[in-house]
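Problem: given the chain below (408 residues), write out its structure.
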Amino acid sequence: MRPITQSRKLAGVRYDVRGPILQEAERLERAGQQILKLNIGNPAPFGFAAPPEIVEAVERALPIAQGYTDSRGILPAREAVAAAYTAAGVPGVGPDDVLIGNGVSELISLVLQALVDTGDEILVPAPDYPLWTAQVTLAGGRAVHYPCAEEQGWLPDLAAVEALITPATRGIVLINPNNPTGAVYPPELVRGFAALAERHGVVLMADEIYDRILYDGARHEHAARHVADTLCLTFGGLSKVQRVAGYRAGWLVASGNRARARDFLEGLTLLANMRMCANAPAQHAIPVALAPGGDGSGIAELCAPGGRLREQRDTAHGLLTEIPGVSCVLPGGAMYLFPRLDPERFPIEDDQAFVIELLRATRVLVTNGRGFNLPTPDHLRFVTLPSVPVLTEAIGRIAEHLAEIRRD
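Solution.
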């Protein structure tokens, strides 16, 4: 009998965050080894509890959330999202412009399936959150990566981005704050992306899931505030700010020129209908989470001086940059570090193999930089969610291993 093989559509698709490196960590755990995990931005395993009112809202909803909802999401959730973006200065947004999804990941898939034809191009940052590149590929398109310069704080150059636009370009992805670098784009750069999308008539896709995880006075600018003549799609959710990644409560907001995008939006609605609806109980958390007045999530306190997220970022950054041959841009947002290993001292050819070797030697799990579509094998991504003692132990082990292999 002929073998059952995977679809050819998967050729070129990678998602190293949950790939062979994680599989090796699971093998070591089955063998009785304890692994220090600095690989996935999932707050719950590290003791970050959701705000009690979020949990209570879902508990109260269970008796009434046993059936399908409107495929767009329950009206109170969509009204709450629309109101939050209106209050943030995004013009003309109502509940009919909001689609609730099973996290941002599902919504990215729906949007790209509805937008991309075979051969179409989407501009994606390098490094990026790899789901974007993977989903463009699965939709039959081509992800064209625009570089973000480490020496400029991982910010892209708008002229270089514009030079990549061709007649096949359908959209531009903006991840702000960025995963994996933690870069927070200045307002003038965000406005520049909006102007670029309008000048070329392409869709601006703003992945803003970390919009309130900010340090050192950094300010997040909503791209949708500056788009009027083309379509802007803003992705957000509760996973990170509210620490409920498992609830899968995300949203998509369409703004700008929806009339010009009517056909695309009809296709998006078709796909949303086909998956029935998002997780019904979790939708009831959204109005509570986005209620006006105050920071019910507690995220501002966590990111402020003395807050846990801020302290962990500072500790991990300090320990990493003390290692000879390791440098790292201090992130202004999110929950990651993206350090560079000097290629002269650490001549790494295959960064995935290197990370597996590091895992076996130290029992510390991190992710390789090329897993985020960086072209060079000289970066790693660290999650800064573990406590200070865990980060100190993990980075100490890594420092010892690097000292053994470093070329001085």
